[in-house]
Amino acid sequence: MHGLTRRWLVESCAGLSSRPPEGPASLFDRVLRARGLVDPADIRRFCDPKLNDLSRPRDLPQATEAADRLVAAVRARERIVIYGDYDVDGITATAILWHILRCVAPDLPVRCYVPHRLEEGYGLNTDALRQLRADGGSLVVSVDCGVTAIEPVRAGRAAGLDFIITDHHAPAPDGALPDAIVVHPGVGAGAPFRDLCGAGVAFKLAWRFAQRFSGTGEEDAERLPKPLQQRLVDMLPLAALGTIADVVPLVGENRTLVRHGLAVLPCSTLPGVRALVAAAADAGSGRPAGRPLSAGHVDAEVVAFRLAPMLNAIGRLGHAADAVHLLTGATPGEAAETAARLVRLNEQRKSTERRIFEEASARAEALGMTGPDHRAIVLDDPSWHPGVVGIVCARLAERYGRPAILLRREGGLCRGSGRSVDGFSLHGALCACRDLLTRFGGHDAAAGLEIPASALPDFTRAFIEHANGMIAETDLMPSVRLDCDATLDELHIASGQVDRLHALAPFGRSNRRPAVRIRAAVVEHPPRLLKGGGTGLRFRVRAGTDPAGAASLDAVWWNGARFEPQVQRGVRLDLAVEPKISTWNGRRTVELNILDVCPAPPGAARA
């Protein structure tokens, strides 16, 4: 089924009926069934995940070896360097290990090192490692990077460094690993859960370190000494921030970490986290389109669209070392100052992002890269900020339904980022073109790369040819996945069904917000444009043909202004919607977030 802007994929029509044969099921139960959740034990673990549901940290490959090496380094007072990435995942992973080490040894000489995005680039680099050794470093612990750093680790060892590598990105295509203890959920025997991000891996290593340092039992965290147990709880918000920001699947252990991390985030003991939330709340106040943010309400959406972009901004336009300090040793005063600066940098980032997105969109369309014969976008420009192109790639992929790579040409090299769409492995595509690349790294959904400018035309052809062979033409139109059909009566606040759907939170990749199809809803009043000169529409829809007593709900279509002629009063529409609870002046109602609409078939009356 196609709407005005997307293909509609209704999960309950693809192998699962909307209602079970034994009789009617509630909307909540139908959504669970559409997502394959029918076993009561699976439903409990999904809707009410417990920290005890996490696999033991000893099951993470080489976590015990790494923990024992850290214990020895702490007791010998070696100079430990935590070498992180400059994105939110790397920043939070760095902070997690710093805090657990300083918990057992407050005066331990632990240094955090994050490379400069523009001057040094991603991952371990030889010059930095040699300088760290010259400064007295002994043991380097990488977080969120390093699994492909075979040559830098070799050079670092020659200089006298020892290494623990913790990462979650794809290893080298030939499977080669650095000469180090490698803690990676997808390497070796593999962990019970393989989709941890860098912060998730760091949390598991911190947990294992706490066990080995204290010499307590290994079955659960409750046997740890109280200070270590509390510090691990304090780290849950950082693990949640990194997990959400890195857009890994919010299922399994990631879901558990995020659910519990968000629960304790409002009362975080870390000055940096408190300052970050306070600054985001101040920045969002007074904006018509911005939901008010309080320290008591931080969900995955707030992290993804407010807190994470602020932390990322300083790494994109400044130096991520400042964000690491914010989440590690910053005093409350320093934290407030840094958080305020993050707000300013994020506004600058958004302005730069809008400009590049408009330029890249126009160029992609002019070059035919948005047509069916070019199922990928590859563009370069000397003026594009390399710290922002990754975000623009994500927006291009969403708009045009195909992977996108944007590069900044500088001298003889092009450096940049790529983002993918569901079902297309970006890392796999780069592996297929690796003979043309200087270096690259990442995973299915996102990657960074460097390529000689002279090889760019050949790379562009090869990458697009690979995408053409992997992506069907029918998949180019953006799609929306809907769980099942629903009626307006079911979605009314009085039914309680939308409140029950909140048990499926946190929402994100692989666990999207519940979305349903409403058949033959009637537009009750003429639509009106949202205030503030936006591109959204607000209107009200009702069920049935008789206005008297029919259930009706408000609907908002954020980018639907151009479709105003199709949404006039009295028109019957099938709606693809996400139902959300709206609170205004103490009154709770359900508001429909419109994803797409489709003219209802003649004679349909199902709303």
Structural features, described:
With 607 residues, this protein is an alpha/beta fold. It has helices spanning 27-34, 40-47, 63-75, 88-104, 126-134, 150-159, 198-214, 226-245, 252-264, 271-284, 300-317, 321-327, 332-366, 389-400, 426-432, 456-470, 488-491, 497-501, and strands spanning 7-10, 80-84, 110-113, 139-143, 162-166, 181-183, 377-380, 404-410, 413-419, 439-442, 446-452, 479-482, 484-485, 516-523, 528-529, 537-542, 552-557, 572-584, 587-599. It has 3 domains: 52-269, inorganic pyrophosphatase (n-terminal core), CATH 3.90.1640.30; 367-475, Diaminopimelate Epimerase, Chain A, domain 1; 483-599, Beta Barrel (OB fold (Dihydrolipoamide Acetyltransferase, E2P)). Strands 3-2-4-5-6 form a 5-stranded parallel β-sheet, with helices on both faces. The chain has a 5-stranded mixed β-sheet with strand order 7-8-9-11-10, sandwiched between helices. A 5-stranded mixed beta barrel has the order 14-16-17-19-18. β10 (439-442) and β11 form a beta hairpin. The longest helix is centred in the middle third of the chain and has 35 residues, at 332-366. The radius of gyration is 25 Å and the shape is globular.
Q: What's this, in brief?
A:
This protein is 38% helix and 18% strand. It has 18 helices and 19 strands.
Structural class: alpha/beta
Number of helices: 18
Span of the ends, CA to CA:
18 Å
**Order of the strands making up the biggest sheet:** 3-2-4-5-6
Secondary structure elements and their pairing?
Elements: E1 7-10, H1 27-34, H2 40-47, H3 63-75, E2 80-84, H4 88-104, E3 110-113, H5 126-134, E4 139-143, H6 150-159, E5 162-166, E6 181-183, H7 198-214, H8 226-245, H9 252-264, H10 271-284, H11 300-317, H12 321-327, H13 332-366, E7 377-380, H14 389-400, E8 404-410, E9 413-419, H15 426-432, E10 439-442, E11 446-452, H16 456-470, E12 479-482, E13 484-485, H17 488-491, H18 497-501, E14 516-523, E15 528-529, E16 537-542, E17 552-557, E18 572-584, E19 587-599
Parallel strand pairs: 1-12, 2-3, 2-4, 4-5, 5-6, 7-8, 13-14, 17-19
Antiparallel strand pairs: 8-9, 9-11, 10-11, 14-16, 14-18, 15-16, 16-17, 18-19
